[in-house]
Design brief:
single chain; Aspartate Aminotransferase, domain 2; Aspartate Aminotransferase, domain 1; 7-stranded mixed beta sheet; globular
Length: 342
């Protein structure tokens, strides 16, 4: 049996979700006539306490729409150095928006007013204009850590004083919400816009949603069309998102508990966990010293029917999700134990 722990993006629609998709009312979304898309967008805006929402094919597109809408050419975006927008979006911000991304190194993967103040450019004409502060919650490459609400509020206050915009890459914001027991609306109240994915832990096959003010979303919609993101009868996949928001959020606690249990067992075996015991569903594990690198260790796990992602610096990433049962825990522990002793 293959145990796929590479990412929560590998989740598949449940049987009930597939039925809902098959029966979804559809129309041409570019004309604003797809009832399922309209319902998903209305539901998302209300859930996040924002004025409007926009359904997009991917989280990367949602993030890039936020940059295009908030920024002008030659502007600068401040983000943590491990952020998805810098690390895993193919340099899109430079190509499409002509903006500069400036990465900040932080001890725990969290931006703070003190760190931002240190790197803020001010108004010197020699520098690009700092326009946007970028927050990723949860932060993937830092082990799925959750931003404390107090930190978000402090960053919000600092950004307002500097007249900067705040965007949240909330690809896994529902994991953050469930882990912290704080509503997505309260989390979203600290930023100007949020992108969230329905195709990760929530289990929908396709799609993300961008939320913000009505003016922001109207501008983002034009950019979406220009980028080729205008979809036609998209209600089939939007219906999966509606189902996910209604039925798949609370179960995320199961993924978090599973990741914690794997972490505790591996810790008992002597494995080093660079990000500690996970808060959510992402676990970082350091390869044992007798493997040359993380890729070799990941390959050995693959040979034992366990798939993970190698992350460099001898670290592999393990991600729990709805399609891997906690019943697989004994097998996972047994394989890690054997490879450690090999």
């Amino acid at each position: 049996m293959l145990i796929d722990l590479r990412s929560d993006t590998v989740t598949k629609p449940t049987d009930e979700m597939r039925k809902i998709m098959a029966m979804a009312p559809v129309g041409d979304d570019v004309y604003g006539e797809d009832d399922s898309v309209n319902e998903l967008e209305k539901m998302s805006a209300e859930l996040f306490g924002k004025e409007a929402a926009l359904f997009v094919p991917t989280g990367t597109m949602g993030n890039q729409l936020a940059i295009l809408t908030h920024c002008q050419r030659q502007d600068e975006v401040l983000c943590e150095e491990n952020s998805h927008v810098f690390y895993l979006e193919c340099g899109a911000a430079a190509v499409m928006a002509s903006v500069q991304i400036r990465t900040l190194s932080s001890e725990k993967g969290l931006l703070t007013p003190e760190l931002l103040e240190k790197h803020w450019r001010g108004t010197d004409l020699h520098y690009p204009t700092t326009r946007l502060v970028w927050i990723e919650n949860t932060l993937n490459r830092a082990g799925g850590i959750v931003y404390p609400l107090s930190t978000l509020k402090e960053v919000q206050k600092w950004a307002k004083e500097k007249e900067l915009m705040l965007h949240m890459d909330g690809a896994r914001i529902f994991n953050a919400s469930v882990a912290s027991d704080i509503s997505v609306a309260e989390i979203a109240s600290t930023v100007d816009s949020v992108m969230f994915c329905i195709s990760k832990g929530l289990g929908a096959p396709i799609g993300s949603v961008l939320v913000g003010t009505r003016e922001f979303i109207e501008s983002a919609k034009r950019w979406r069309k220009m980028m080729g993101g205008g979809m036609r009868q998209a209600g089939i996949v939007a219906a999966a998102g509606i189902y996910a928001l209604n039925h798949q959020v609370e179960r995320l606690v199961e993924d978090h508990n599973f990741a914690k249990e794997i972490a505790l067992r591996l810790q008992q075996l002597g494995y080093e966990l660079p990000a500690g015991i996970p808060e959510t569903n992402i676990l970082m594990v350091k390869a044992p010293s007798h493997y040359s690198n993380d890729k070799e260790f990941a390959q050995k796990l693959k040979e034992n029917n366990i798939l993970v992602n190698s992350f460099g610096n001898r670290i592999i990433r393990v991600v729990t999700h709805q399609d891997v049962s906690i019943d697989t825990l004994p097998r996972i522990v047994e394989v890690f134990k054997r490879l450690q002793e090999a």
